[in-house]
Amino acid sequence: MICATVLNKTAPYKELISHGFTLDEKGMKMSKSQGNVISPLTIIKNKGADILRLW
Predict the structure, then answer these.
(1) FRET partner for 13 with CA separation of 20 to 30 A, picked from 7, 26, 35, 45?
(2) DSSP letter string, 20-52
(3) Beta bridge partners of 23
């Protein structure tokens, strides 16, 4: 969305619906009970805090 808006000076679509789920590499919903979540601190250490701010 951000890249398309910067490059084309317009959003690529009019509306966006988000279900709020994040999926893992197998396409399964990430949840603490399934044990497939990644700690935000781990992401910050590996990728930096900006990546979480954009999300």
Answers:
(1) 26
(2) ---B-TTSPBP-TTTT----HHHHHHHH-THHH
(3) 29
Return the CA Rg of the chain. Answer: 15
Alpha-carbon span 2 to 20, nearest angstrom: 19
> Which residues, other chains included, contact 6 with Cβ-Cβ below 8 Å and sequence gap of 6+?
none
Helix (H, G, I), strand (E, B) or coil at 1: coil
Euclidean distance between CA atoms 7 and 19, whole angstroms: 27
pLDDT one digit per residue (tens) for the chain, 55 residues = 788 888 888 888 888 777 778 888 888 888 989 999 989 999 999 999 998 887 6
DSSP 55: -
